[in-house]
Amino acid sequence: MTLQLAPPRQGSRRQAPPPRRMSRFDLKGVPYLLVSPYYALFAIFGVFPLGYTLWLSLHDWELAGDKTFTGLDNYAALVTDAAFWNAVINTLGMFALATVPQLVLALMLANALNKRLKGRLLLRLGVLLPLVTSVVAVAVIFSQLYSRDYGLFNWILSWFGVEPVVWQNEKWSSWLAISTMVDWRWTGYNAIILLAAMQTIPRDLYEAAALDGASARRQFWQITVPMLRPTLVFVVFISTIGGMTLFAEPVMFEGNPMMTGGTTGQYQTVAMFIVKEGFRDFQMGYAAAAAWLLFVLILLGTMINYGFTRRIRGAR
Amino acid sequence: MTNHKRFVVTGLALTALATVAACSGGGGNTQTATQSGSAAEPVTINVHTFGGGENFGYDEAVKKWNAEHPNIQIKYQNLTDRFEDVYLPQLLQRLQAGAGAGDVVGIDEGAMGLMAARPQFFTDLSQYGLDSRKADFPAAKWEAGLNADGKLFALGTDMGGMTMCYRKDLFEKAGLPTDREEVGKLWPDWNAFFETGKKFEAAKTGAKFMDGPNTIYNVILFQEAPKNGNVAYFDKSNQLILEKNPAIKTSFDWVQKFSQAGLTAKLQAWSPAWDKAIKGGGFATMGCPSWMLGVIEGKAGESNKGNWDVAAVPGGSGNWGGSWLAVPKQSKHPKEAAEVLNYLTGKEGHVAAFKEAGAFPSSIPAQQDTEVSGLKNAYFNDAPTGQIFSASVANLQPVFFGEKHAQVKTAVEKVLEGMDQGAVKYDEAWSKFVEAGVKAAG
């Protein structure tokens, strides 16, 4: 340390400054310059819309109409709007109905695929296949399967003497139908991510456990699940954000995109509520306020789920 | 800390740079646009419309105009087949932004109240002498083109008229007459229509008598509104009169009666299931404005040719649907745009559109043209549709559309669908209906 603090030689001081300034810019400035395109774009397409939405949410503004500043009136109206809360409940309900079975299934699937199986690669690719199809295609096909008159599910139910179900008519039936669409598409994706994480768990942990006489089930719960914790947190985050912004599936399920989510809003999600207010009823300020509340909802949902997944403790 | 700050500054600087570049780019564009508008070069008039299939049917009319007017060239674009959820929000955004809208734009009936309440966005057509066209249009069509300032901002294109379409094969199966004259005589009024429906159901053909609540509700509403002061959801001072207007209650009661008697196939109009039932024979009758004939032909397909026919509607004349053309104020060539609008809404334009797309003309001289009145529809067993539709719009009264007509319409029809499908109880339906309408009018 002391050696390095020795004063520099006189000559070098005079020659150094010009190249040093250049190299300092090279070192400190250029990296920022190189990453700046992303941030510039993010500022235009991310930060600005966010801020503008916030600004809009403080106004009573009908599209192509008068704009008046109303402060927090839109928010006050939203929290007492039964239709908004209906949309929130629908969103949360479908999120729970879709995500819980999806993650459990994905975990089981990943565990199964982690075993020594014949044709492992093919099976692993197979679970990813639904992800390749577009959301709209999935929703169109499923909506047909769930249709009242000529749908596959009602046909199967009719074998057991069940009257045709109008899937769009009740909350439970529409939620179930939409949840299956979400699960069909995303279970494989989550399974592959969990599988990748499982493969990083050292084998000797299992060997040691097996030597101690731990059963396969016990190994799964005491080693696999705790070791997957960071990945589970990621998967839960992504599912939460996806579930809270659920849009394409219920819209396609409705068939005619007026965004009401059924005749009495049985399956109108918050995202649909926002589009309906903004682009069907042209209440831009109100829609902007709802968008910000959705943002808060996602934050809350993610935080709660984070707390939940954090409780998965290491093996003791 | 310092690093962070510096990064923010760099970011901001870059953003500013990008913005400046974007602005100068925009400026350049405007300049070219102005140059092309100078006297030496021909003026281009953009005509924007919407609608599926043949939509406004202007291809031939535009070709003819462009050949005859080298100095004013029409660029005709049908932007989308969806009005409410694509065309209208886009048009409003372009009006608000002050750029991007066509020089002549099509507007559907449902949004006429909304546009009439925004006079700041449209050119007053009487400046260019188009107020002289008043005698060409029925009062119903003319008055909807006057905005909140009392200025003429839009002229009519097509109109719906009103008939009743029916499935000949299903009527035969049910032992009902199949000839369109005799079928028309089955139902002079809605009571007789109801009784016919019960007979049809008793025959157990496996099909339902009518499609669902939406079409029949609109048919009856537009027959009843002229009997109750020519207003629907809003009175002429834009106050919601949902509960007070007997026209609405009458229409609602009829829908409820049909639904409760089990005459409907419980289908929501414009849904995929509805499409399938039109093709598969899921129901036997449907209220039919002229444009609905094209819808049925498109959805039922070639294999059903001759199965559908068209008869007189119960309860007399009426109209459902139709469109208008207007010139946005942002147009750089309002004079030329008004000339084009005048041509397209004139007799020649109307007749050409009728021949091309079957859009029934709202212009009276066009209606009286033999090419229109003599037209037969091959798909519907050569029904004399020209004559049937002319009769259905005789003595048509205007109906006033409030600013939020479209929103209220969507909201209350959702309740009707819910009632028909069982999600809303019959005895609670009226109060839910009113509640939904009041909320949408907000």
From TrEMBL, chain A:
Membrane topology: Multi-pass membrane protein
Compartments it resides in: Cell membrane
Coiled coil (UniProt feature): none
UniProt-annotated stretches for the region Disordered: 1-20
Domain ABC transmembrane type-1: 88-305
Record Pfam families: BPD_transp_1
Domain of life (superkingdom): Bacteria
Principal place of residence: membrane
Keywords: Cell membrane, Membrane, Transmembrane, Transmembrane helix, Transport
Entry keyword annotation includes Transcription regulation: no
Transmembrane segments: 30-52, 83-109, 121-146, 186-206, 227-248, 286-308
PANTHER family named in the record: ABC TRANSPORTER PERMEASE PROTEIN, INNER MEMBRANE ABC TRANSPORTER PERMEASE PROTEIN YCJO
Family: Belongs to the binding-protein-dependent transport system permease family.
Record protein name field: Carbohydrate ABC transporter permease
TrEMBL record, chain B:
First and last residue of the signal peptide: 1-21
Gene3D superfamilies tied to this protein: Periplasmic binding protein-like II
UniProt entry keywords in alphabetical sequence: Signal
InterPro entries reported for this sequence: Bact_solute-bd_prot1, SBP
Superkingdom: Bacteria
Pfam families: SBP_bac_8 (PF13416)
Protein name: ABC transporter substrate-binding protein
Species the sequence originates in: Nonomuraea indica
Species lineage: Bacteria, Bacillati, Actinomycetota, Actinomycetes, Streptosporangiales
